[in-house]
Amino acid sequence: MQREEKQLEAALDALLQRINDLKTSIRTLLFRLENEYATLSWPSVLDSYAVISGQMNTLLKVMKNDKTPLLRNLIVLPLVLSPDPDEELKQATEGRVVALSHDITPDLLRTKPDPDVEQRQNQFEQRASQVPPEASQKQINALNKVVNHVLEQITHSREDWENEATVRAAQTQTCVIQDTQALIAAVGLGKSLKPIPNAAPAQPGPGRAQAGPAPGKTTSTIKTTIKAASQVHPYNR
């Protein structure tokens, strides 16, 4: 008997630890959704969901472990019912349950849904049972066809993305990123360009009027050679 009690206590401690981890992750995600919605990115939300999903799977593995006793075979009974506040109960439930009174105990120990929920569920089951088997099978086949088509599209798109990413990663680099950025900065912003000093004006000769340099005109350092069209035209005869 003591061995079973120790085994049950160890299993409950492990379950409580996993549940607390799960609660912490859910609480953190809710806090970020309420307070960081302006800067929250979708990949980070997916990461949070992945953590929660992993914790759920871990909790299920603990419950299905051979060392965990079948909790469905155990009975929970309240030892004392009192309307007076219970500090230990309040601390254990994080303030959700203050007292184990006659009003709240039936809801805590309920093993079936609420009567309203159970009634609606029975109505849905009756409506489902009234559908002919052939019609329901046609609907199931149509739904499966649509789902399979969507899955195929998603699979093909994912394969195309992965292939494109692989091809891009395998391509050899044909330029230097730093040089390209420096060239763009030089053309667009004039960064790292050295100013060209103005040439000295020519001395005026006898009988010539002295002309000043044209305002706002800079000397070009690019040398160009212009030839007559008749000299370079390949079909000139």
SS summary, helix count: 8
| Oligomeric assembly | single chain
The helix/strand order is HHHHHHHH
The outline comes out as: extended
Measured as a percent range, the helix fraction is 55-70%
Beta-strand proportion: under 5%
Number of domains: 3
Strand segment count: 0
Mean pLDDT: 79
**Biggest sheet features:** none
Low-confidence stretches: 208-237
Structure classification: mainly alpha
Please report the distance between the alpha carbons of the first and last residues. Answer: 117 Å
What's the alpha carbon Rg, rounded to whole Å?
40 Å
SSE blueprint and pairings:
Layout: H1 2-35, H2 42-63, H3 87-92, H4 105-108, H5 115-129, H6 133-170, H7 177-189, H8 229-232
Helix pairs in contact: 1-2
Describe the structure.
- With 237 residues, the chain is mostly helical.
- It folds into three domains: 1-74, Methane Monooxygenase Hydroxylase, Chain G, domain 1, CATH 1.20.58; 75-111, no CATH class; 114-189, no CATH class.
- 57% of the residues lie in helices and 0% in strands.
- The protein contains eight helices and no strands.
- α1 (2-35) packs antiparallel against α2.
